[in-house]
Design a protein that fits this description.
Layout: H1 2-24, H2 29-39, H3 52-68, E1 71-72, E2 80-91, E3 96-99, E4 102-104, E5 110-112, E6 119-123, E7 125-127, E8 133-134, E9 138-139, E10 151-155, H4 174-183, E11 188-192, E12 215-218, H5 223-228, E13 234-238, E14 240-254, E15 261-267, H6 291-310, E16 319-325, H7 328-331, H8 333-340, E17 351-357, E18 369-373, H9 379-386, E19 394-398, H10 407-411, E20 417-421, H11 440-458, E21 484-486, E22 495-500, H12 505-509, E23 516-520, E24 523-524, H13 528-535, E25 543-550, E26 553-560
Parallel strand pairs: 7-10, 10-11, 11-12, 15-16, 15-17, 17-20, 18-19
Antiparallel strand pairs: 1-14, 2-14, 3-4, 3-13, 5-12, 6-13, 8-9, 14-16, 18-20, 21-22, 22-23, 23-24, 23-25, 25-26
Helix pairs in contact: 2-6, 3-6, 6-11
């Protein structure tokens, strides 16, 4: 009896040892949680690019790279790769709109558009209505002669006879009206609106190509009429200066003396207080901690680096470069700078592929959906993904190599890419994206899946690149937004709502997260493409009915755009 007990005890110890070894061999949940909570702490102030909070996050990441033993990989033999980026345009010197007794104050009475050029113009003003010229349909310039050199007043509202699905709709867009005005000889354009539902909110933090003349939006009603009744010249003075700032990517390297390198990246910047205009929150300025977007990605690449560094025999056929990018939220600035200056760090021809982690912190407890984009960028990826099976991961593949994250910068340099993403949610780009909402166990699962992917790549040798078919060219044009975040992982009939934006038509109508849109107006919404086609038929002020499935109920809800 005692011998049997000893035997079974030994067996149990054997299995216990293997279980403990397996658990210890996993990416650490404890460390993942530590990184997410540190990077998404209020003290980081939302990690906006080129801010104190962003610098604090960079120092944290550098320290983790150093603890792991990653080699600095910038030209200055440090972890930091500086890059200069366009931050905003700022008002400098004198800016004014002036006529007779009227003197308008910038920011208070008018805004300068971000694609405006500087200028000091004094000329007669002429109202050209909507400033639209569509052959055989509309011509706001008929009967107006000697236009060259004048300042044009243009109403931005959309004529009722033009709908969003009209083939000439693109000729009513602001860019088309500006182009037409310049061809007619405008020396400056003052925009205004007679439609309370249509306005301009220029954001000087957004980069835009200058058009060659001053462009101004008059914020107060009837200002254009006051200017015209002065019977004197209007003076428009625009003096804007491009303000540039410096930020840093953070580069850590594992040199296995291989011919080829795999880049693993994630952006560490977020929205700060939402001051750049890309927040979906409507309220007083608040810290956007960005726990999922993208503290989750950075925490993951730190622990992937620790794992790969500690298991050199498993990950030995490639060098590994871990890059934490800044400036992603402003327009992929950090990754664009990296790929444009790769000769300073690494030869682009020697990068086998780029693995991007952006928003990997919300793996669903039920669906467990992991979206992997860029699968079409190498012929090998589909086979690799199909060969991997994890009980707690359900993969949804996307072929396209271009998307709203840093992998796009690499794809455009003909480098195979994979982008790992666990889906959008109602906290996306809002202050509520906090560390407590992150699924740490899910992050661990995603990391393990990526490690399995790397092990497959390790066995294959150099990957070849393939261009993927992008769908953006077929996207319908529309000026309005319903204000929802679609559930991109949903594969049922209709379009499921994963989040509702504050103050938008969907919220005002009472649509909820989890509702499935079945019909919008007269269009049956079978999928995302049908939804976008349906949306393209509406403009501001339109009313319609949306049919949604909420649980077991089917509801018809009135909605005003």
């Amino acid at each position: 009896m005692k011998k049997q007990q000893v035997f079974f005890t030994l067996i149990l110890l054997f299995f216990y040892r293997d279980t403990v070894f397996a658990q210890n061999n996993l990416v650490s949940q404890e460390l993942l949680k530590k990184h997410v909570f540190a990077l998404a702490d209020d003290s980081m102030g939302g990690r906006n690019t080129a801010t104190l909070g962003g610098e604090m996050a960079a120092r944290y990441i550098q320290n983790e790279y150093k603890k792991i033993g990653l080699t600095p990989k910038s030209t200055s033999n440090s972890y930091l790769q500086d890059f200069v980026f366009f931050a905003e345009k700022i008002y400098v010197h004198k800016n004014e709109v002036h006529s007779g007794k009227i003197k308008l104050i910038p920011k208070e009475d008018y805004d300068v558009l971000n694609n405006s050029s500087n200028g000091n113009i004094s000329a007669m003003a002429i109202d050209v209505k909507n400033g639209i010229e569509i052959p055989g349909k509309i011509n706001d310039y008929i009967g107006k002669e000697n236009l060259a050199g004048k300042i044009f007043l243009i109403d931005i509202s959309t004529p009722k006879e033009i709908t969003t699905h009209d083939e000439n709709f693109k000729l009513t867009e602001l860019s088309a009206r500006i182009e037409t005005a310049i061809k007619k000889g405008a020396s400056a354009v003052l925009f205004y609106s007679t439609d309370p539902n249509e306005s301009l909110n220029p954001n000087l933090r957004t980069r835009a190509k200058e058009c060659g003349i001053p462009l101004v939006f008059l914020k107060k009603r009837d200002t254009e009429q006051e200017l015209l009744t002065q019977h004197t010249k209007v003076k428009v003075v625009v003096n804007l200066k491009k303000n540039q700032k410096t930020s840093q990517n953070i580069l850590g390297y594992i040199d296995n003396h291989s011919k080829y390198t795999i880049v693993i990246g994630a952006h560490y910047d977020h929205l700060g207080l939402g001051e750049n205009g890309n927040s979906l929150y409507r309220g007083t300025p608040s810290i956007h901690n960005g726990a999922d977007d993208n503290a989750s990605g950075v925490a993951s690449i730190i622990e992937l680096a620790r794992k790969i560094k500690g298991e050199e025999e498993t990950y030995k056929n490639y060098n590994y470069l871990f890059v934490s990018f800044s400036g992603e939220e402003l327009g992929l600035y950090g990754s664009k700078s990296f790929v444009d200056n790769m000769s300073n760090q690494i030869d682009s021809l020697k990068i086998d592929c780029m693995i991007n982690l952006d928003m990997v912190g919300r793996l669903g407890n039920k669906e467990k959906n992991l979206e992997i984009n860029g699968v079409g960028s190498s012929p090998s990826f589909d086979t690799i993904i199909n060969s991997i099976s994890m009980e707690n991961i359900r993969v949804k593949k996307g072929l396209g190599g271009i998307g709203p994250s840093d992998h796009s910068s690499f794809y455009l340099k003909n480098i195979p890419v994979l982008h790992f993403f666990t889906g959008q949610h109602e906290d996306y780009h809002k202050p509520s994206d906090d560390a407590e909402e992150v699924n740490i166990a899910g992050m661990q699962n995603v990391c393990e899946y990526i490690l399995l992917t790397l092990q497959q790549i390790e066995k294959r040798g150099k990957l070849s690149f393939t261009k993927t078919k992008e769908d953006s060219a077929s996207t319908p044009r529309f000026k309005i937004s319903l204000g929802i975040i679609p559930d991109y992982m949903y594969e049922g009939e209709g379009l499921r709502i994963d989040g509702v934006s504050d103050g938008k038509p969907a919220q005002k109508a009472g649509l909820l997260r989890g509702d499935v849109i079945l019909q919008l107006g007269e269009v049956i919404v079978g999928d995302m493409n049908n939804y976008m086609k349906a949306l393209a038929q509406f403009k501001k002020g339109d009313e319609t009915v949306v049919v949604v499935k909420r649980g077991k109920e089917t509801l018809k809800i009135s909605l005003l755009f």
